[in-house]
Amino acid sequence: MDEAGYEKIARLFVDFYFKTFDENRVALGTLYRDDSMLTFEDKKVGGTAAIIDKLQNLPFQQVVHRMATLDSQPAHLGEGSILVLVTGELQVDGQEKPLSFTQSFQLKPEGDSFYVFNDIFRIVYPAS
Amino acid sequence: MDEAGYEKIARLFVDFYFKTFDENRVALGTLYRDDSMLTFEDKKVGGTAAIIDKLQNLPFQQVVHRMATLDSQPAHLGEGSILVLVTGELQVDGQEKPLSFTQSFQLKPEGDSFYVFNDIFRIVYPAS
């Protein structure tokens, strides 16, 4: 596989993120910090506590993410941040019809690891 | 309108970007620099010349973007970069059915203005 270092980090991150989201949402708290931002549909919150509160109180409990595309780019070459764009499907609470979604992350380096500095999530409704 | 400074910049940028894309695609060159990156579907290119070449040689000539959602966050508080996520519809070459798309930009400050450092574009196919 011809995969750059940042592409591998992006892939490992999103695999972990969606698995954790679907299986144990509260554990996503380890991925955010107090300067992190989350835009989830029309709602914008900042800081680990508010972000986890938002993610815990979404109007669905059971959810399965299926990723369709994953793209990444170095976001700040010197500093080592990574921009990630995901598209995929979201199957919610046993609803028959999945929803399309898109989610953009900026991962910021912290020691030997990364955390989520920016996170923007949107449902994508079918084109009319 | 309760709009932060970075939100206003994001809105002005995307309005200009999509208008220019639809009316005079080659003029998008002013928005990129030699360290800019573009991922357009499966293809990744870098630098103004390669990016404009890619955008000029897409498999459609006439295109109309209709934005559905626009979200932005400060990407690096100290430095003033802005992360932008757009979703919308793309009407191509008079095709009857529009396509859904998502596009994530990172805008980097340059003097009194901004340029596109990161740009990732994906068509979003309807959930199965």
What's the arrangement of secondary structure elements?
The structure is a homodimer of 128-residue chains.
Chain A: H1 5-23, E1 32-40, E2 43-46, H2 48-56, E3 63-76, E4 81-92, E5 99-110, E6 113-124
Parallel strand pairs in A: 1-6
Antiparallel strand pairs in A: 1-2, 3-4, 4-5, 5-6
InterPro entries (chains A, B): NTF2, NTF2-like_dom_sf, NTF2_dom, Nuclear_transport_factor_2_euk
Main location (chains A, B): cytoplasm
Pfam family, one (chains A, B): NTF2
Structure description:
2 copies of one chain form a homodimer. Helix content of chain A is 22%, strand content 49%. The first copy, chain A, has 2 helices and 6 strands, in the order H-E-E-H-E-E-E-E. The model of chain A has no long low-confidence stretch (mean pLDDT 93). Chain A has one domain (5-124): Nuclear Transport Factor 2, Chain: A (Roll), CATH 3.10.450.50. The first copy, chain A, is globular and about 45 Å long. The longest helix of chain A has 19 residues, at 5-23. In chain A, strand 5 and strand 6 form a beta hairpin. Chain A has a 6-stranded mixed β-sheet, with helices on one face. With 128 residues, chain A is α+β, with helices and mostly antiparallel strands. At the A-B interface, strand 1, strand 3, strand 4, strand 5 and strand 6 of A face strand 1, strand 3, strand 4, strand 5 and strand 6 of B.
